[in-house]
Amino acid sequence: MLIMQIRSAEWVVVRSKEEILATLDKNGRLEGLPFMPEMFAYCGRRLRVSSSAHKTCGPVQGRYVALQTTNLVHLGCRCDGKAHDGCQNGCLIFWHTAWLRHADADASASVTNGSSGCTYADVVAATRLPDLDGAKRYSCQATALTSYAHPLRWWDARAYLKSYQTRNHTLRELINGISFMIFCKIAGPHGERFGARRFYDAFQAWRGGNPFPRRFGLVPPGKKTPVVTLGLKPGDYVRIKSHQEILETLTHDGKNRGMGFDAELVPFCGGVFRVLTMVERFIDEEVGVMRHLKTPAAILENVYCLSLYTGKRAFCTRGYYSWWREAWLERVSDEAVVVEEGQRECPMSAMRTPETVAASAPSPPS
């Protein structure tokens, strides 16, 4: 099987349906990675690589850890959930390099693992797992993550080197991220030791960066967190409240009615964005069962985890969509939407995200 070396920003073409099926086993997988029915829509398309997926993250035994993969990339496209009963997670799709060819390569060069026999029906059938206590279970790239990704030690320097070699991150971004990890090791996860958080905030104010992102919520123990209903729908514009305002809606451990406010959301505070969708259902990637939110959460366009403050999982490119309680947002009229909508600066070049990297690309080679 032909394996290509692909770096961020390179143009590729997704191979044909027949070529891809020839690489899959009867379970619709290649080296443990599922090819999902939602991906067939991209066959034959010319796309730009948004990032190498050599470092990712996911839940293992109840906690999120850093994971490593081989020969996988992201193309900036997300799963629409159509083959998984409308799951709204919107996960970035993983692509094995065997399913791609360079845009200027000979289109007649095909690939096969010589042992396929996989059909489209097999790929569709592979989206289901045996029921769990009477509940439907699903299989996808997210639920099968540990089949093709393996634990990664945070101190393994090869992962950082590869992030630079594949152009996932600049040297400055790597230095900033590693410096934050070291700072948290010394000052504590919330910067609570030695008055370090005050120093961090002063330094960031001087350089025009964000204040320390990990802070405790301000809702007193025993008091319920506020509930806000804005009646949002896709296409509406909202302004994300300031970090301080959001802290006033959170319990000490940073939650609003069970939903956590993560440090990765902080760089977007104060920005104006458009609502992409309201999340009501999603597949729990640990068990494969569809979960339903009691109160829908908002997903905003181009707002997702940038892996700036994830510590050992820093430089993951999985790009989880961030979920927002309506209590953290406020409506904005179309007339008030500024030209710089959604382009708020944050440490480590926040806008170098999968979608924006692909969108800003020059025309592909002919």
Using only CA atoms, what is the Rg? 21 Å
Give the strand order of the largest sheet, numbering strands 1, 2, ... along the chain: 18-17-14-19
Beta-strand segment tally? 19
> How do the SSEs run, as a string of H and E?
EHEEEEEEEEEHEEHEHHHEHEEEEEH
- Which blocks of ≥5 consecutive residues have pLDDT under 50? 339-366
Tell me the span between the first and last alpha carbons. 26 Å
Tally of individual helices: 8
**Could you give a short account of the major beta sheet?**
4 strands, antiparallel
**Helical/strand content category:** alpha+beta
Instruction: Note the beta-strand portion.
Output: 15-25%
Number of folding domains?
2
Approximate helicity band? 10-25%
Shape: globular
- Give average pLDDT, whole number: 89
Q: What features would you describe in this structure?
A:
- The C terminus is likely disordered.
- The protein contains eight helices and 19 strands.
- The protein is globular.
- The strands form seven sheets. Strands 18-17-14-19 form a four-stranded antiparallel sheet, with no helix packed on it.
- It is 17% helix and 23% strand.
- It folds into two domains: 141 residues, no CATH class; 192 residues, no CATH class.
- It is of the alpha+beta class and 366 residues long.
- A hairpin with a 2-residue loop joins β2 and β3.
Brief characterization of the structure:
The protein is of the alpha+beta class.
